[in-house]
Amino acid sequence: MCGITGIMVTGDNQVDQSALRLMTEQIAHRGPDADGFFFGAGVALGHRRLSIIDVDGGHQPMLSRDERVVVSYNGEIYNFQQLRRELEALGHHFTSHSDTEVLLASYLEWGRECVTRLRGMFAFALWDSRSRELFLARDRLGIKPLYFANLADGTFIFGSELKALMVYPGISRKMRIDALEDFMALGYVPDPKSILDGVEQLSPGYTLTVNRETGQQRQMPYWSLDVVTPAIAGGQPDELLERLEEAVKLRMIADVPLGAFLSGGLDSSTIVGLMSRNNPEPVETCSIGSDDPLFDESGHAQLVADHFGTHHRMRLVSAKDSSLLDVMASVYDEPFADLSALPTYRVCALAREKVKVALSGDGGDELFAGYRRHRFHMLEEELRSRIPLGIRRPVFSALAAVYPKLDGAPRFMRAKSTFEALARSSAEAYFQSVSKTPDSVRLKLYSRKMSDRLFGYHPQERFTKLATEVSDAHPLSIIQYIDFKTYLPGDILTKVDRASMAHSLEVRVPILDHKFVEWGLRLDPETRIRDGIGKAVFKDATRGFVPNSIIDRPKKGFNVPAANWLREELAGEVRNLAASERLLDTGLFSRKAMQKMVDEHLEQKRDHHTSLWSLLMLERSMEQLDLSYA
Where do runs of H (alpha helix) occur along 138-286? Predict the structure, then answer.
């Protein structure tokens, strides 16, 4: 795992070498083992290396034998050995045992189409002096990040993290208004946007080609999820476990110590079990325990560790870990409001004490419909399918308007959100179900200036567009498609990448092997949610392999007791929000509305913890990046 940076200038301009070195230094945590630089005519590439495969070889940036092509690469190509054999048969010769050299040879042999042959996680930049083009690519699911910007003087810069770009002279520090709205709604900034005006993320499954002579830029998709084609035959439990085991075995290739996260949930337990079955020595596993019994899963993790005979370590941390508040802004750069980022950061630190690579169970809920919102959406969808929207919208909107919001009541009494969902289209309803701050609350927070500058933009437009792309798919497959395009890369994978890289730890995600994903999303949707139970086919596949008590227990998640935390340890921080100069000086927020939200939460009249946490993270990120909005 590594970090990459680069600069391309126009005409006879020369690359600022000191700027590239400074950019690369900002992401030293992504690769503490070595750095490297390439300086050519108008183009420069930087690299920070975390040595995983071919520790002594594979240094980057790596040049082709004729020195006309050079690559800087972040990630792992798990099928590099197979590709190497294929390339050797075509006449290529290798001087190292690294996947980087295989990537370089793949480009020399197949050109830009090489990305379609890669199986892994990656973000890379490749300069081809023959065509005078810079070629960038990002993996299919968005496991590895890549930011880029076009500056006013024609300079093109890129880097693995936003902090690498922020030190380049002349970079914009103005917030992008629609990205701010996205963040307040979702808790993250979805690609291809960033929080900065003028800086973008390369979307998962895309390539970007930049011609130095003409300045022309082309973004092209090279992969897409297929959720429309009718379900494939098969999908028996044995086949699922066999396919996942193959993905796990590929990700166990490493020349450094390797382990796994073990939360005690079904996904991580299955990954650990498959690793144990393919490793002669006990697998190194680790988990974080909480001092709050309501949020502690360490007992379940220990049960799985005993079952598979792993070498397990657990560390108890406070559920109310306020020391990480400022650290999160530094780690994530952009505002990021997933509260599970805090325990994720801690478990990555624990893992790095023993290993350099860890496997995780991320992606199982997205692939096999394991979230509670999936089940609720499908229940609502049954009624939506029977009553036209033209009738539902006025009827259920009226019911929602008069029904009180009962945050603390039993779930069956909280009908207001259900009425609101039934009054919307399917995509609109799903957007609201994943929102950190719903429309009714968010719009009250904004000033007239914010509302005017949005020009009618609403974040649910992306959800509606994505749903339209696969409108012929099963309703469950549609919302899973939306998850794979938004929540998975924007939240889950961003969370794990930044938290792990902050500790120079590589995390591999077998469930998100693109071949396994392609197969899993083609299974009959009825096998994912059956009789109101999510991940049904995955549970069938693991029964008899993972303890039943793990399979059958309710999903808990990797969370913290945020509502009370913000009323107790962080009450002072919450009170200060209503007078935050960083937020209020933008002119985008209403002081009165913020004060009301703070008072309602502290006085336990309403639970606003997700919105307040988003505002706290926004404030810290604005300070970290010195952001403004004029």
Answer: 162-166, 177-186, 237-250, 266-277
